[in-house]
Every structure is written in structure tokens, then in C-alpha cells.
Write a structure and sequence with these properties.
Length: 157
């Protein structure tokens, strides 16, 4: 039974926008029981489909901030989205837009957490920059800490 989903938003062919791909690969290498992973492009319909029928969704995405601190990890609810942050992906709408649409349709999970990693480069190309690559284990640890103990509520972790 799937109790939670980790949704990676990004594109590995746009440098640091591929951070979610790296996080999902690490999670898939040592799966968390009852947690599935999904890679999507960040469009609202794809996000709504990915987090439907679970109580907890964790979204990992790259963001661009001004001023930037590449590799800095923001952990928040969508209401606490990093100030001055915009999605690094090429998707036209972002996670906050998907949440607004989901709320209107009654399709938002009870718990929705976003891990946003500040990107340095999102142009065409493969491979993460060193600062963003160094953030991958931090995000993986944070996701495991949040979801890794079935039956334990997030408030007690």
C-alpha cells in the first residue's frame, strides 16, 4: 500500500534542474516501504495525478532565487515557498499553482512538503553543478527522516 509519494520535478537535461532526478535515484536505490517515487514535469495536472490518493506528498524541485546561494535547501509547505523563488524547470506554472488548482478540485494531500534546492545553472546540458550535487544527500536524508518510519506521525519526528 502506498502511504506517501515523493515527486521529483525537473529535467536532467537542464543542468541543476535535474536535482530531483538525482534525489529520486538515491531513494529508489534503497526504497522506503510504502512510499513511491514519481518524476514529473511540474505541470499542475501531472502533480495532481502524482499526489492523488495519498495523505502525504513530498515534492523536490530546483528553484532560482535572487540573490542566489546555489545548493541551499529550502524545506517548507507551499505557503512558505522561498521568497523570490521561481521554478528552475521549463514548466510554465509551478507547484503553488498546482496546489491552488488542487484545492479548488479537492485534490490536495493532507500533508504537502516541498524541498526546493537553489540552482546555479539551468541551461541545456547534463550534470549537476558541485554545490547542487552536494545538496542531494541532504535532501535524501530529509525525505527519509520525514517518511522513513511507517506509522510515526510527522509531528513526532
Amino acid at each position: 500500500m502506498t502511504r506517501a509519494v515523493v515527486i521529483g520535478v525537473g529535467n536532467e537535461y537542464r543542468r541543476d534542474d535535474g536535482v530531483a532526478v538525482a534525489v529520486l535515484a538515491a531513494l529508489d536505490a534503497d526504497p522506503i516501504p510504502g512510499v513511491r517515487t514519481v518524476l514529473c514535469d511540474g505541470e499542475p495536472a501531472a502533480l495532481l495525478d502524482a499526489w492523488s490518493e495519498v495523505d502525504t506528498a513530498v515534492v523536490v524541485d530546483a528553484v532560482l532565487c535572487e540573490p542566489a546561494t546555489p545548493g541551499r535547501v529550502w524545506a517548507s509547505t507551499v505557503d512558505g515557498w522561498p521568497p523570490r523563488a521561481v521554478p528552475a524547470s521549463s514548466h510554465a506554472l509551478g507547484i503553488p499553482d498546482a496546489v491552488r488548482l488542487g484545492a479548488a478540485l479537492g485534490r490536495v494531500p493532507k500533508e504537502l512538503v516541498v524541498y526546493a534546492v537553489e540552482a546555479a545553472e539551468v541551461g541545456l546540458g547534463t550534470g549537476l553543478t558541485p554545490a547542487v550535487r552536494a545538496a542531494v544527500p541532504e535532501v535524501v536524508r530529509a525525505v527519509r527522516d520525514r517518511l522513513g518510519n511507517p506509522g510515526e506521525s510527522p509531528a513526532t519526528r
